Amino acid sequence: MVKVYWIRHKNHTDIMTEGYVGISNNFENRLKFHKEKNKNKKLRNAMTKYGNDIVTDIVYEFHDKEEALRKEYELRPSEFIGWNLAPGGGMPPSINDYPDAIEKIRQSIKDLNMTPYCEETHSKESKGKRKKTIDKKCYRWYHNPETLEYKLIATSEDQIPEGWQPGRKPKVKQKKRIRGIDYECNSKTWEITDPDGNKYIVTNLKRWCKERDLPYFGAIRSGKWKGWFFNKA
Fold it and tell me: Which end of the chain has the least Cβ crowding within 10 Å, N or C?
């Protein structure tokens, strides 16, 4: 049976203008989708906002999907009615309708040596079997440092290409930064006056004081020392 359902606020009374209308031959799974993976932001926000005040009704049941689609179109003849974004009467596009795209995705995954294992596509037994195979054949990532090509290699069976290095991508060596040359450890700017009245603008007070045998902590604590004056610029 294909069901036409109405998701609404408990105070909604007009199915033609309020709430969300949809169809499904597996109503329980469809409702779970709306709660967990819904891409309709308007409906998702409404369900989050109203929470326990949301009511879901099955308003029609049909043996034929085409009849259900026609009824959905009657209830939602245009876009942006209630919480619906699209008009009714049409099925969402499916990747299965585009065999060329499926083949292109398969080829891309193969070229990149990617294995899309996840909770939604593989069982625990399948993932466990994969892990045992990886451990048994000692699969490791290797890359070509010149072309940046990388792939998984069964090191217990296959020869590692000449010049290839461990890892998917080469590690970028960070240039060591030198304090006082590449960066200043004290970013504050100070205006300093010596006993003769000469003024200095300093951005690294600690190093400046050290070079002149002046007490750094005394300078910042009191702002003066034996005729010297230290002020933040």
Answer: C
* Alpha-helical runs (H) found in 3-79: 27-36, 41-50, 65-75
User: Domains in the chain and their CATH numbers?
Assistant: 2-75 (3.40.1440.10), 102-166 (no CATH), 190-232 (no CATH)
State the alpha helices, DSSP H only, in 12-163.
Answer: 27-36, 41-50, 65-75, 99-111, 124-137
Q: How does pLDDT run across 121-178, given as a tens digit for each residue?
A: 677 788 788 888 888 888 888 888 888 888 888 888 888 889 898 888 766 777 787 7
Both structure tokens of 83 = 């919480």
How far is it, in rounded angstroms, from Cα 132 to Cα 112?
Answer: 22
d(CA 111, CA 103): 12
> What global pTM score does this model have?
0.43
Q: Encoding tokens for residue 55?
A: 């009511």
